[in-house]
Design brief:
6 copies of one chain form a homohexamer. Chain A is of the alpha/beta class. Chain A contains 13 helices and 14 strands. Chain A has helices spanning 10-13, 20-32, 53-63, 93-96, 100-124, 139-151, 160-166, 176-182, 185-195, 212-223, 243-255, 271-279, 291-294, and strands at residues 37-44, 48-49, 70-73, 79-80, 87-92, 129-131, 156-157, 202-205, 227-232, 262-266, 286-289, 301-308, 311-312, 329-330. In chain A, the strands form 3 sheets. A 6-stranded antiparallel β-sheet of chain A has the order 13-12-1-5-3-14. In chain A, helix 12 links the parallel strand 10 and strand 11 (286-289). In chain A, helix 5 (100-124) runs parallel beside helix 12 and helix 10 runs parallel beside helix 11. The longest helix of chain A has 25 residues, at 100-124. The two termini of chain A are 23 Å apart. Chains in contact: A-B, A-C, A-D, A-F, B-C, B-E, B-F, C-D, C-E, D-E, D-F, E-F.
Chain lengths: 332, 332, 332, 332, 332, 332
Amino acid sequence: MNSPDFVPADEVLSGETADVYFAHTIEILRREGINPVATMEVFPSRAGILCGMEEVKALLARVLPKDRRDVWALSDGDVIDRKEVVLRITAPYQSYGLYETAIVGILAHCSGWATAARQCVDAAHGIPIVSFGARHVHPSVAGTMDYSAMVGGCAGCSSVAGARMAGIQPSGTMPHALILIMGDTVAATEAFDRHMPPDVPRISLVDTFKDEAEESLRVAEALGNRLNSVRLDTPGERGRVTADLVREVRARLNLAGFRHVGIFVSGGIDPERINYFLENHAPVDGFGVGSYISGARPIDFTADLHEVDTRPVAKRGRTPGITPNPRLNRIL
Amino acid sequence: MNSPDFVPADEVLSGETADVYFAHTIEILRREGINPVATMEVFPSRAGILCGMEEVKALLARVLPKDRRDVWALSDGDVIDRKEVVLRITAPYQSYGLYETAIVGILAHCSGWATAARQCVDAAHGIPIVSFGARHVHPSVAGTMDYSAMVGGCAGCSSVAGARMAGIQPSGTMPHALILIMGDTVAATEAFDRHMPPDVPRISLVDTFKDEAEESLRVAEALGNRLNSVRLDTPGERGRVTADLVREVRARLNLAGFRHVGIFVSGGIDPERINYFLENHAPVDGFGVGSYISGARPIDFTADLHEVDTRPVAKRGRTPGITPNPRLNRIL
Amino acid sequence: MNSPDFVPADEVLSGETADVYFAHTIEILRREGINPVATMEVFPSRAGILCGMEEVKALLARVLPKDRRDVWALSDGDVIDRKEVVLRITAPYQSYGLYETAIVGILAHCSGWATAARQCVDAAHGIPIVSFGARHVHPSVAGTMDYSAMVGGCAGCSSVAGARMAGIQPSGTMPHALILIMGDTVAATEAFDRHMPPDVPRISLVDTFKDEAEESLRVAEALGNRLNSVRLDTPGERGRVTADLVREVRARLNLAGFRHVGIFVSGGIDPERINYFLENHAPVDGFGVGSYISGARPIDFTADLHEVDTRPVAKRGRTPGITPNPRLNRIL
Amino acid sequence: MNSPDFVPADEVLSGETADVYFAHTIEILRREGINPVATMEVFPSRAGILCGMEEVKALLARVLPKDRRDVWALSDGDVIDRKEVVLRITAPYQSYGLYETAIVGILAHCSGWATAARQCVDAAHGIPIVSFGARHVHPSVAGTMDYSAMVGGCAGCSSVAGARMAGIQPSGTMPHALILIMGDTVAATEAFDRHMPPDVPRISLVDTFKDEAEESLRVAEALGNRLNSVRLDTPGERGRVTADLVREVRARLNLAGFRHVGIFVSGGIDPERINYFLENHAPVDGFGVGSYISGARPIDFTADLHEVDTRPVAKRGRTPGITPNPRLNRIL
Amino acid sequence: MNSPDFVPADEVLSGETADVYFAHTIEILRREGINPVATMEVFPSRAGILCGMEEVKALLARVLPKDRRDVWALSDGDVIDRKEVVLRITAPYQSYGLYETAIVGILAHCSGWATAARQCVDAAHGIPIVSFGARHVHPSVAGTMDYSAMVGGCAGCSSVAGARMAGIQPSGTMPHALILIMGDTVAATEAFDRHMPPDVPRISLVDTFKDEAEESLRVAEALGNRLNSVRLDTPGERGRVTADLVREVRARLNLAGFRHVGIFVSGGIDPERINYFLENHAPVDGFGVGSYISGARPIDFTADLHEVDTRPVAKRGRTPGITPNPRLNRIL
Amino acid sequence: MNSPDFVPADEVLSGETADVYFAHTIEILRREGINPVATMEVFPSRAGILCGMEEVKALLARVLPKDRRDVWALSDGDVIDRKEVVLRITAPYQSYGLYETAIVGILAHCSGWATAARQCVDAAHGIPIVSFGARHVHPSVAGTMDYSAMVGGCAGCSSVAGARMAGIQPSGTMPHALILIMGDTVAATEAFDRHMPPDVPRISLVDTFKDEAEESLRVAEALGNRLNSVRLDTPGERGRVTADLVREVRARLNLAGFRHVGIFVSGGIDPERINYFLENHAPVDGFGVGSYISGARPIDFTADLHEVDTRPVAKRGRTPGITPNPRLNRIL
């Protein structure tokens, strides 16, 4: 997986997306003629997986004066601890004060997604996780969300934008809509097979019209060796996908000679549910995870000034001066 | 509060932000020469406040054929029920199938924010709520988040972008950074007062260096009638803002003749905390709410085909045919 | 519903089924020449529905001396309270002491079953309950169990013996075995229709091979107006019968013009589950209840002597003398 | 302990105790001329102690054709696991289909009793348990219940019928009724001693009239070495038997030189209560257990067809074909 | 009930019982020549019944200068609220500063006892409560504890000192020791009856040697009309006194014609237990309460300066100036 | 720490503080001429730390006949178990029967305090605990309470009386009252420093007027090396003392070069709170504990006669005769 070339958006650079009081602050300091070299430290409110630092770095590289900057940070994908300093910026305050909102916002949202993804990945003990949650977030962040999920350890994602950011092919099966329009799962799967390039895996969604086990056998008979997997996505109204269903479909596929056909499970998947499938020995070959990752709460980050013109400072409740963290590397 | 003119983004229109399987589906249907008039219904997984429909409408107005479309919906700000149909699109499927991800994504994220905002507004029984959470989301959605919070009932927001969308002035006080750089709360407040236009309210943040009650009296004495409010934001390390603190600051301000100075409270505010202040008779004049709103979980929305060429259809677990909802209005 | 003519079994009359210490007691009293007129009162350890009294009465009528007996009791089907006296026997002790085990055993087991049945009936608010639990009890009590369930309010039962005791026709649909042997649900239902007398309702079990909704439509099309109901019995491995499934099958049957076909639900049904279906507006036409009724814990009954030769007595912990209960009627 | 010669009851053989739909099924198959060799597997819904298999074997031996039967099973007293196959019948379906209700009913009820008994036996760590629960079940199953309790590990039982099935002497002390009629515990105990054969142990019930410790000393003084034990059965109204009471009675008996007199405890005994006595070092010599064993819930058993004429079959939710279980032995 | 003439102890007046830092404070102020008129307010940390104010008043009357004092307070027995001001002293600080420890200590301990007593009295709905807890506190406060219990509403107490303070006769029955020494409850009760003055009620303790019901009848027969009550005090080892036991003893006494004999219950009595007896309709004529009252946690009181030489002051967390409370009355 | 010379109080010796029924008992026995040598055993209702035995010993030494006494006991400070015999008195009953109330009352109250103190000491893992709770108990027991706290392991106490009993100097800092009267924390601390002898440690209370961290630096600058510690006592209205506050004050003191200044914490301290500070690595140098120790529930003790004139006796529920306890030592 690659990291994309992040380009700061115009509305970030202009302060449009910032809290207005930072614009006020810069204005006041400018008028007062005050522009100290200030050190700001950023830390999270809870432990997790860091993500968004590459994007933050691209922003800082653009705004900080090249000869008066000193930036230390951890990296995307790092495990971070509660209250651990993950970023330390030393530079003239007027050059970066306006971007505090964007910096902590990027880290908060991306780390929230990456952390949730990692929880699923850890629970799955090696079974691949694909991020399917683009449908639960605003399209402006769909790609970033999927990219963060992959930073957290997902094997793939469904959005084109997210996959492009990570430099991989997007993953997908087929929607219920295609099957409902075609009127039959086998017909839809055959049409898929007819028109899609050979490198797109044939994964048939088998819960639209008929019993999942019956439909699995029908599509397997129709596509034979070209069928990669079946996807079980039984809705809650029908009792969701159970471990017993996975075991039964596996047994019936095997009995009919289709051992090569994988079983992909989706629908309300989260670490607890993944754990349930593993504990009940369900032979799952892949999980699609939606809102557990994409709807994850951001991890709040706090940015504090700890030095002003080399003088240790801190607001009440914090300790003045630099907070040591030997894990930090200089990035700018 | 106005609603802005939403303009669909290029990467939404191109399908870049969509799940890849919708691109596959449109491709397959095109090659098979299938393009039925299909009716898609959209409903939420839990109750809340609807938001994002104006933005969805702008997208549909752009992509649906003007003479073959029939779209019914509820409005932004409406209270919606679990599983209630909030949007029904009837049009040739190829014209909109690619946008399912964006449509439910917009509604999910925006309704999640609006719903959380409404919970705070309801808890506050008339005390104004200001959205302060831009710092917990990616800057690409900071404006949309604040706009959704105002759809949910907030009286203001801190991001410039969100305020612009709602057609109001952004709200803000001053950051700890300004005070730490200036070295004294009174000095910082006086500088703010010197340089800010008269229509920006003077709200002084009083927990940076000294005891909040002591500092409140100091800034009140310095600015006199020009001081609008003090903001209490005591960090968790110092026991957070308590109802007793608000009462005490109120009493000490009153004793010194500063009855006109309001008290604005922020820091970990959520409905439970708002309720705590009200139950303990704390004379709060405004609440700043951050991650409770901006970090709210999206409300998952589901999009289902219910008719294909006037034929009732549905996947297993759903009921074929149109789901009646007399609350819907035709929007396109 | 009738009450059968109970005939005391030989092994009850001989004391074979009694606790051995009652045989010892009668032997000792006989050798000591002691045979006082003693009053025994019987009460339950918890509230419920009384059942078994008719059978007890038949036993007492057989063993008590006709001229020296005085027996008062409540009736089968009566609501009884914790510690309420439900039976009071006054007669020479040697005539009935041996039967204490049988008397309280009959009341305990039958009242346990009737009480559980009543809980289901109450929960169902008028939807008929059929007792299906013969398969969870020893065949020696299968009929008595089903009879007790009907005393408790069930509309029918599946065992031939229970139905005979209550003077009704036994209820039944078809087992999975028939369908598995015939290889197809429609074929099995048609065979049933071919060979069963017209007064046996055609109720087809629709979860054996295919999706329940699909199979319901297939059997409805095959039998048309002759089809009485479908039975949903989805196993736990497939997520049990859900309220949504019932609603969906109802909708699909209606859409296809089969409004006359009822829906009968079984599988792990208990009052909580019945309540779930009602609260979720599932249009159920009948419930089959198994082990909740047939596996119900007996209600312990206690038998205490309260008078011996007109002298009030009681063991420690009880009050000497007759316990007044105006609800009792003389039965012998 | 022996196993009795079980003789199938006429009403079982006639199908009188069966669910009526099995009679229907046999009738339909006969008319259709269908009688495949079918394999039925039986498994429990939860773990426990198997009981009833001897009785089931007697039934199958009677009804299956001797030259076309193949029956494998576990044995009475075996520890069985949830969903473990305990019985596999291969034979022409018409020969045994009618008996499914009886087969699973016998196993359910008997295994429920044996399992509860085993829980008490395990809790008691070697202190003998006597089944005293005949008074909580219908007399038709009183003997079978006590027999099952002994299969589960009880050292004795109170019903004559149960003891006869197990080939032992029934156990018993004396009822409160004897003492109330005689008017004094010592008088009753002396009468018992006068008239009972020497091999019946003298166990005096000491809580009827006086303080248990005082009464224990009185009967010990009256019978001397002939007294086997005292039984403590203090009712709930008087605080039940406590561990302290047992210890105190033991101490007072020892102090008076009656170390040979045992202490037998009854009244609401279950594994939790047994554990309480052991944890509190109460010197109990035997426990009488009533409704915990006799009122135990049956263990539901399920019977599934897995092969029809050598073809693997299964209803939805189950796996087609024979389920391997190396623990099974051929019994017919 | 009277209030005694409290006389301040020498070691209180000398500061011996005070926190040493108050002695330091007085010393420092004296050396600095500072002795402002200061107003101290005292409030409790939780709601309850006020007690100890009479004793505090006696102390203040002794130490405050008669012409420069102004003391307002609530009264012993008053219901007080959390944080309600119960005492306000205005006087030269040096005259009373040393006594803060004693003032709040007296109120804390006494109010704790009175509050617990009131909870029992409220629970008993008119049945008299007698304080029996002298044995759980140091003898230096036994009288004060019992006096406080009576301020809280008890009808009597067992300690001579407490009764003397309240101006009543102490209450008592007889100890187990007397009965154990005399060897028989009837003998002990007869000796009591022989030697005690006629105005001491004959209350016999009936659980020492024999069953309580049996012993109650024995003492009632021995003393006849002279017997006032029996006391049930069954120890935990014997299952404590139960509501059923009280009902049974009542029934057996009535059956024998001793309706005039009351039933007094003791042993682990607290409001929950009192409620249990009342809910179960136990005919109790009096409760003896021990450690629930005497072992009650003190109610912490806080003393704060609110004015110094007419200037409103307060430490952080409190509001400067007099706290209005219209319920206060001037006491000095 | 020493043990003081306890002198029995007159009102204890006269029976004034006793339960009246003991006076009655002695009177009756005297009139009956009964005075057996009786053995009384005393045991606690729960485990803890024994305290009060020295005081009990002084009482017994005074009242028991020197030539007919035999007293065995455990010692103050010993860990004792539930129901363990801690005191056994053998002497003529008339000589000590009157003092049962005082004996068990002294042990109950003192052991309750010592046990609570030990819990704090154990939680603090070596950080000194000072007893500050005199203000929550009646002054008659303030000294005894503090003495018991020191028997439990406290390093000091605030009451003069308690310190005198233990033979140490009382501990104390300064009250809020001194600072409120002086009007400034630094001024008050300087006055303290001026007038107190050099051996009284200078501990400044820093939460009265200003932020604790700010005030700590101010007093440290004022007193320099003479400052021993600061005391943090932040009230609940201001969020109590937090671990973060302690860490911050430590950091700010160190940054300013005041590493020699200790931090003493008080306000609602109990074992759970101590544990919280330790788990969160707060560098606390001492804890002041108030009502957790002084308001601790007494440990109920029970006194039972076990022999009367060498004959084993016991009331129901207890075992007759001497209870062996090899840990006892003869004390009289």
